Amino acid sequence: MGKDGSPKHYNQFDSKRNRLTWIFGVSGLCILSYIMGSWKNAPYTSNNQSDTYSKVGCDVASTSQSSSSETLSSPSTLDFSSHHHIEINNPSAMQDFPPCDMKFSEYTPCQDQVRGRRFDRNMLKYRERHCPTKDELIYCLIPAPPKYKTPFKWPQSRDYAWYDNIPHKELSIEKAIQNWIQVEGDKFRFPGGGTMFPRGADAYIDDINELIPLKSGNIRTAIDTGCGVASWGAYLLKRDIIAMSFAPRDTHEAQVQFALERGVPAMIGIMGSQRIPYPARAFDMAHCSRCLIPWGKLDGMYLIEVDRVLKPGGYWILSGPPIRWKTYWRGWERTEEDLKQEQDEIEEVAKSICWKKVIEKGDLAIWQKPLNHKECIQSRRVIKTPHICQSDNHDMAWYTDMEKCITPLPEVSSSDQVAGGALEKWPSRAFATPPRISSGSIPTITPEIFQKDNDLWRDRVAHYKHVLPLQQGKYRNVMDMNAHLGGFAAALLKYPVWVMNVVSPNSDHDTLGAIYERGFIGTYHDWCEAFSTYPRTYDLIHAGGVFNIYQDRCNITLILLEMDRILRPEGSAIFREPVELLLKIKSITEAMKWNSKIIDHESGPFNPEKILVADKTYWTGQATPDKN
């Protein structure tokens, strides 16, 4: 109280000044603490860097010298090794994997010729997939031949391959007259010849183009049964047609391996007792050039299988026996009666499955599948066999037996309507919404989701360009182990690559048919088993979410060893998983002699999914000593 008894009054200005001083003082201390904390936790950048930082790998510049992938301009390498651990289905210890014996250099686990001899020869079942039992699995690295070289870049690889990479002269001798392959010094040369196209595949394809329109953009995907070294597929590529070529691992040693070494799509496969691993309505065109498949036998089952995978309005092209048998019967060392009977059987089967013969001219005969089944269904009143299949598993083609019935096409309202929906012409087809999606045939996948997926993959590939030399020709054969809608393949269209799109047969949403509708190729495959290819046949493998899917189903070490088998020396792999799973993958790849680094997600560091970029190092097996 004042002397006069009244209350004491404080100066309001002084009060506000004191409060502001207190606020600024506390703020200043917070800022100073933050700066000091940041300085304390920042890597020391002098030349006398501490051992602690060296051990955790913060010096990116020094570690990049040991990894070819890290010499690229790229996002910073991330290190999580001190903070994250996970235990998953992986019984093998993380010691370095030893090299396998050189006898495994061309090992194809599920098409092993020795194992195949145990199985029935009827319908060539012994040449179908027969994977190793648990006791037959090998935990070693498949060696490259001693003088292995980096393959020629595309398009030179179409015509040349190094002899040391596939040291087999058998085809150059056996098929010398037919010009499949020739040995020229340390190289193979592929003249483009074939059994039924001695003038070369280019001229042969020109002959086909005179009969059906190959350049209109309506024909984009093709399948070549019994492909040889895939010269037909190789020369279709410059016409913007991509062919899935397949052939068995048989007496024609390494024919599929030669195809892939050339940079041409191919798989080991056979027309046996099981469906070929592609969805219904996949291909615009199918081809057989003296492929020796008994089309008219077994109630036409093999031609019925071709019908299953052909799109409405698709073409089937046949050259070789029995076509033009009146001219060639002596050279084929068969009787006229036998050849005439074979052609009659083929004609009868084609008619019974509602195909129309377009033309037979020279060495070529061409049939066309109808646009829909309105008339075909009506014809079953007269033509009783084969009947229309009643099952609804038309796309199922993983260890699924072939059927002797016609795969029904989606219903239409008029006879000129394309069953399942008309496709855009190539290249618009690549980004147009596939009919399977626009019609709602794939649950939960809408046109809006499809377009967002395209945008997503455009951003992802733009991100990958910082760590992978996509434009430099290092990569040609690319595999997407979990292709989903084919967005990765679409985003790579402007680069000189092709993509094998793999879809799991156990997936909740079968998207492989939509991938084919986009004009890309692919196959069904379960990654708990080995892929149907030779070692060293892919340059770049993309594994997005693969291990998150399979870690509870099978041993991820075996999946990674399979990736090592099919990836060529100095090839690359991309993994996308949560960071803890990536660390486990990284430790296994290091045990496989790969160089790898973890980088941030394309959306930034706050996304829990990270990216592992890995390069397989160059090493080869040792030459086997000459016992003589």
From TrEMBL:
<comment type="similarity">
    <text>Belongs to the methyltransferase superfamily.</text>
</comment>
<dbReference type="InterPro" id="IPR004159">
    <property type="entry name" value="Put_SAM_MeTrfase"/>
</dbReference>
<keyword id="KW-0489">Methyltransferase</keyword>
<keyword id="KW-0325">Glycoprotein</keyword>
<dbReference type="InterPro" id="IPR029063">
    <property type="entry name" value="SAM-dependent_MTases_sf"/>
</dbReference>
<keyword id="KW-0735">Signal-anchor</keyword>
<dbReference type="GO" id="GO:0005789">
    <property type="term" value="C:endoplasmic reticulum membrane"/>
</dbReference>
<keyword id="KW-0472">Membrane</keyword>
<dbReference type="GO" id="GO:0005802">
    <property type="term" value="C:trans-Golgi network"/>
</dbReference>
<protein>
    <recommendedName>
        <fullName>Methyltransferase</fullName>
        <ecNumber>2.1.1.-</ecNumber>
    </recommendedName>
</protein>
<dbReference type="GO" id="GO:0008168">
    <property type="term" value="F:methyltransferase activity"/>
</dbReference>
<keyword id="KW-0808">Transferase</keyword>
<dbReference type="GO" id="GO:0005768">
    <property type="term" value="C:endosome"/>
</dbReference>
<dbReference type="Pfam" id="PF03141">
    <property type="entry name" value="Methyltransf_29"/>
</dbReference>
<feature type="transmembrane region" description="Helical">
    <location>
        <begin position="20"/>
        <end position="39"/>
    </location>
</feature>
<dbReference type="GO" id="GO:0032259">
    <property type="term" value="P:methylation"/>
</dbReference>
<keyword id="KW-0812">Transmembrane</keyword>
<keyword id="KW-1133">Transmembrane helix</keyword>
